[in-house]
Specification:
alpha+beta; about 30% strand; single chain; hypothetical protein yedk fold
Amino acid sequence: MCGRYTLTADQEALEVALGVEGLIHKRPRFNLAPTQEAPALIWRDGASVAACLRWGLIPSWARGKGSTFRPLINARSESVHQKPSFRDAFRRRRCLIPADGFYEWRTGPDGKEPFWIHRPDRSIFTFAGLWEEGALDPVGARRGPDDMLRGGDDRESGEAAAPASGGTFTILTMGASPALRHLHDRMPVVIPTESRSTWLDVELPWTDTRDWLSDLMERSLSQDAWKWHAVSRRVNSPANDDATCLAVAGAQ
């Protein structure tokens, strides 16, 4: 699962890390939640370009259903090419979601305990995502990142919400690497720097992309390096979005 993540770099550092200009990232985010907007990379005219998308994919066939449809925050990578909600986006609208960490919740005797997971050097990486055009405006619609501060802590779908006017996205998940399985059995799919253009390029046959993704996930199980620590349960509320979210539990 991936129900919350972080992107604590400022806009300039993010653009340098991704090699792209025009990202909309007004401030560091320490608790990015479903239904909120986030920077993304999509494929346009043979190149990756910046976009601003809302977390929680709404398929084209669900537009107009309003509060009866729950935006899809995660998609299982093993079946994403088959599911009606995702298969068209998998073939035509893949995206990258930059992050520098994500939260997972481990069930213990006192309930669910949140952990922040990140690279040892706290560098920026990119989740594999899928996106859909918005119901009204083109992708990149500039709306505040702080509106609709609703979300879920560890679910396949977010809170019920009306379709966003800009584009929407979901994050692909896979079976957790051996190092992280004690925290949760699922984790986001991370696309390495050298493979970003391959994931985004929708000119490639989708069957080749499916097979390539399967191989990439298998390799990542033994290659990915992560660090983690327990954090305060204040991350359970998306209203809390500051650096104290990352503090070691009990140290605040």
